[in-house]
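Async update (no meeting this week)

Hi team, since we skipped the sync, here's where things stand on the single-chain job. The sequence we agreed to prioritize is pasted below, unchanged from the tracker. I ran it this morning and attached the output directly underneath so nobody has to dig for it. Comments welcome in thread, and please keep replies under the output.
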Amino acid sequence: MANEDLQNPPVALAPPPWKCKCEAYWLIFYASGPLLEDQYAPLEATSPAWTDPQKSGHFRGGLGMIQVVRYLETPVGASKVIYRISNVMNAWADTNWGGGRRRIYVSQKETCYNGRKNWNIPKHLARFSFTHPPTTGSAPSQALKVEVFPPEKADSKPFFTANLKPFRWFPAVPFSTKACPWLGLNVHLVQPPLPASGKAGEEVSCGTDHWMKLLPYMATNKARVMWVDVKGAKRGEESDAESQALLDGKGNEGWFPDMQPWQIGLWLEDATLIFEKPQILNLT
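Output:
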């Protein structure tokens, strides 16, 4: 059972639906299995609903995404998000429902708590750094560096780094996730119930009781192709000695799956992202 106290939530409640404004970057990869190391955060890794194939389904591979989203407007304020979607092509056998958000970090407590409570999205806190603000003019910046760090300010090593360069010699075009089924992509999210953290100071890591299914919707009139170069905790821009320390287990690996997306992704400016009320699934 979820152990949260709804009479005294740690932050303000913001029930769905949510209509958000954002700039997003889609980093696409193909995973053939088995599941990547560090697929789940330590809290979710304790839950059979997330890790037991008999409960969560057997992973069989498929297209997936890392998405970095800079929320400019949400019901709980601006925030930054990075998450890994396990698949967009029914990579979990035994179901035809779609994928799931398996590991996700956000920059503020309000979206962490509400994302867990509203949609079973396993959010945890992290710090974000961007070399440029979101696009405000007719063209994006020539290049953007994204870094994501553990939440403690004393930890200065990013566990995820991406260098993104939008194509500027082609015009931006409209894009909507409504087109995904025509491309053979299932963008439904099916999320297992979440365990709750019992640690002091982690009250926003609430638990839930039911499986949930939802279909987020994103649309923009300004979608661009971009070049992608990703460095995980084991492939950062370090000296030889620092790189060896990371490989020896002394760095920030363990925070996010270490993977290499395709070199081409999508840069989505001035986008609208909608999260409706989820469907409750009667699963055990």
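Quick observations from my side:
Residues 46 and 195 are 8 Å apart (CA to CA).
Helices lie at 48-51, 53-56, 109-119, 240-250.
Reply here if anything looks off.
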